[in-house]
Design brief:
397 residues, single chain
Length: 397
C-alpha cells in the first residue's frame, strides 16, 4: 500500500499544482467576480455529479465484490446521461442559471462524472501510470488552450475548454482500461441498480451533505456580499485542496485496499497508520501555507485577494482534523458502512446552516471561514466517535 500511495501522490501533486495554476489564471484573467461566477456554476454541477454518483462512484469499490466492472460501467454511464439531462434542465427551468449555460452544465456534469468513475477504476486495477497521465493532462490541456484563447477569454470559454479537456481524458482512459465487455443480463443489471441505490444512495447523501459543508458559504456570500467575495473565498478553497492533497491520495488507496480485506484487525491497523501520516503531512502543509507572506498572494493574484491568508487562519483547525476524518470516512465506505458518514455529515450541516446565516451577513468572508471550520470539526469528531465505537479501539494506538 505505501508504494501505491507514493505513486498516486506524485500524480496528484502535479495535478494539484496545475489545477492551482488554473485557478490563479482564471482569477487573474477574469478577476474576483469572474472567478466567483465559475465557482457558482461548478458548485451546481458538483451537486448534480453527486446525484450521478448514486449509481456509479458512490459505492463502486464495495459493489465490485459482487459485479463485473463492465456491468457497473454500463449502468453508471446510462444513469449519468439521465441525471445530467434532468438536472441541467431543472437549473434552466427554475432560472438558477441562464439558458446559454444549459449545454455547458449538461456536458460538464456528464463528462466530469464519467471521468471520476474512470479514475476510480484505474486505482482499483492498479493502473497508476495511466491514472497519473489523466490527472496531469486534464488541467494541462485546459491551461494551454486558455493561453491560446486569452484575447477572447471569458466564463463560457473556460467551460468550453474544460469540457474538451475532460472528453479527451475520458477517451484516453477508455483506451487504457481495455475493459472486456461480456453479455449484459437484464436481471443482473437491475440488481446493480437496486444495490447501487441502496449503498450508493446512502454514500452520496453523505457526500451531498459534505458538498453543502463545502459550498453553502459560497451561496450565502453571493446573496449577502457579492460575487467578488465568492471569488476570494474560492481561492482559499483552492489552497485547502492543496493542503488536502496527501489526504485525498491516502484516502483513495485506503478505500480500495480495505475493500479487499476480510480481517477487522488488519483493516483497523492499516487505517490508523494512514490517518496518522495524514495528520503529520497535513500539519506541515498548513504551516507552509501560513508562512507564505501576504504580499506573495497579492503578487500572484492581485489586490482583490489580499484577505486570503487572513481567512486561512480561521480555517486551520477544521482543515487539519477534517483531513484525518476523511481517511476514516473512506474506511467506512470500503466496508459498506455509509450510514456513519451520512450521520456525521448531516450533523455538520445542521450546525453549518444556522451559524452561517448568523455569521456570513455580519462578517462576510471571515464569517464564512469560521462557519466552515466549525462544521468540519463537528463532522470530524462524529466520525472519530463512530470509528472508536465500531472498532472498540483507541484512535491513537
Amino acid at each position: 500500500m505505501p508504494r501505491k500511495i507514493i505513486e498516486l501522490f506524485k500524480s496528484n501533486l502535479f495535478s494539484v499544482i496545475l489545477n492551482s495554476i488554473l485557478v490563479l489564471l482564471t482569477a487573474r484573467f477574469l478577476g474576483a467576480e469572474g472567478r466567483g461566477e465559475i465557482t457558482i456554476i461548478t458548485s451546481l454541477s458538483l451537486i448534480l455529479q453527486l446525484l450521478n454518483g448514486v449509481v456509479g462512484s458512490g459505492a463502486l469499490y464495495y459493489m465490485l465484490k459482487d459485479f463485473e466492472i463492465y456491468e457497473l460501467w454500463f449502468v453508471s454511464f446510462m444513469w449519468f446521461v439521465l441525471i445530467s439531462f434532468i438536472g441541467s434542465s431543472l437549473c434552466v427551468l427554475f432560472q438558477i442559471v441562464d439558458y446559454e449555460f444549459y449545454l455547458i452544465i449538461f456536458l460538464y456534469t456528464f463528462l466530469s462524472s464519467g471521468l471520476v468513475l474512470q479514475l476510480m477504476l484505474h486505482i482499483h486495477l492498479n493502473q497508476t501510470i495511466s491514472y497519473g497521465i489523466i490527472k496531469v493532462f486534464q488541467p494541462l490541456i485546459t491551461i494551454a488552450f486558455m493561453f491560446l484563447n486569452r484575447d477572447h477569454f471569458n466564463v463560457e470559454k473556460f467551460f468550453e475548454i474544460s469540457i474538451g479537456a475532460i472528453f479527451t481524458c475520458i477517451c484516453f482512459s477508455v483506451y487504457a482500461l481495455k475493459l472486456n465487455f461480456g453479455k449484459l443480463d437484464l436481471i443482473r443489471l437491475s440488481s446493480v441498480i437496486k444495490r447501487s441505490l441502496k449503498y450508493g444512495g446512502t454514500s452520496q447523501l453523505s457526500n451531498l451533505a459534505q458538498i453543502v459543508n463545502y459550498r453553502y458559504s459560497f451561496f450565502l456570500l453571493e446573496s449577502y456580499v457579492g460575487l467578488a467575495a465568492v471569488g476570494v473565498f474560492s481561492i482559499m478553497f483552492a489552497i485547502c485542496e492543496v493542503i488536502w492533497l496527501f489526504c485525498a491520495t491516502v484516502s483513495a488507496v485506503v478505500c480500495s485496499e480495505v475493500s479487499k480485506y476480510n480481517n477487522l484487525e488488519k483493516e483497523v491497523e492499516e487505517t490508523k497508520k494512514a490517518y496518522k501520516w495524514v495528520f503529520i503531512v497535513t500539519a506541515l502543509l498548513v504551516l507552509a501555507a501560513l508562512i507564505v507572506p501576504v504580499d506573495v498572494y497579492v503578487f500572484i493574484l492581485n489586490e482583490e485577494f489580499r484577505e486570503v491568508k487572513h481567512i486561512l487562519y480561521y480555517m486551520v483547525p477544521g482543515v487539519l482534523l477534517f483531513a484525518v476524518a476523511k481517511v476514516v470516512a473512506h474506511y467506512f465506505s470500503a466496508l459498506g458502512l455509509m450510514k456513519y458518514n451520512l450521520l456525521s455529515s448531516v450533523l455538520g450541516v445542521v450546525i453549518l446552516i444556522p451559524i452561517g446565516l448568523f455569521l456570513v451577513p455580519q462578517y462576510g468572508v471571515v464569517g464564512a471561514a469560521i462557519t466552515n471550520s466549525i462544521s468540519y470539526l463537528v463532522t470530524a469528531f462524529a466520525l472519530f466517535y463512530f470509528f472508536k465505537k465500531r472498532t472498540r479501539s483507541s484512535l491513537f494506538y
